[in-house]
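Example protein was shown:

_____
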Amino acid sequence: MNKKIVSFIAVSCLLIIVCVFSMTVGSIQISFLELIQGLFSGTNAQVEVIKDLRFPRMIVSLFTGAALAVSGVLLQAVMKNPLADAGVIGISSGAGVISLLVVSIFPTLFFWLPLFAFLGGAFACFLVYLFSWKSGLNPTRLILVGIAINATFTGLGQSFNYRGSYAVTSLNQATTSILNLKTWKDVEVMVTYGSIGLVLALLLFAWCNLLTLQDKTARSLGVHVTRVRLLISAVAVLLAAVATAIGGLIAFVGLLIPHIARLLVGTDHKVLIPFSALSGALLLLLADTLGRTILAPNEIPASIIMTVIGGPFLIFMLRKSERIYEN
């Protein structure tokens, strides 16, 4: 059987298994059969608690993972850099800081959080392009500038959370990753904006494929390279921003998944984008489920688990890219 089809089937099956496991395991243990019966009858108190607390968390995790993974695929296509990821180059931290700043000053604008996150992410993306552009895009310079932008916005976010000599516990979900506080309202926002971004990303696969060519070759085929880059970047920023606004700062999903996906299904973005969406959803739901079960009743945020996994992977990719560019 075709390797791509096998990969899709395998990831889909794993996703279903992790969903069932995540629904039934936790502070409330319940069998899958009891869960289904409770959902239809509406008389099981435990199922009602799971429906109100665990289901929103799962749906937000799935969409956040898918959005971050696809955002990584798009950014790597437009920047021609295998290390480009919204979390690494500062788009996520920019989205978090700007939305935190605006919502702290104008709390009544809370429901416009995704919009402010988008503006913050777009601003960070603009800075990355601005400071790394020098007679064209250099992949190494771009990633180094991105890391510097990310460090700056991360520092601003952390300093904003400290007032005076004591730490202020922030409930802002743009700078933390507290998936256990999600509600159906968060699901509504995440699914609405996330679906729009994912559909737009799927429609952009042909342009992403063309950007893998040399710019000169793409122009000879009638592609307006700069305009295409901006459009794809805007969709990538939208996906990363809404994921940050609702799911919090979660790094490395957009870095790990595209590389693993290319190994399994190849580089054609028509297949790569939907496969990355499925794989990203699987990875983040798995990380969140492990985080709330391995040390129960205590929890490890999914963002910490992703950082532990992603740090060594980033070092591996940096060493690999150095060898590529040295050659």
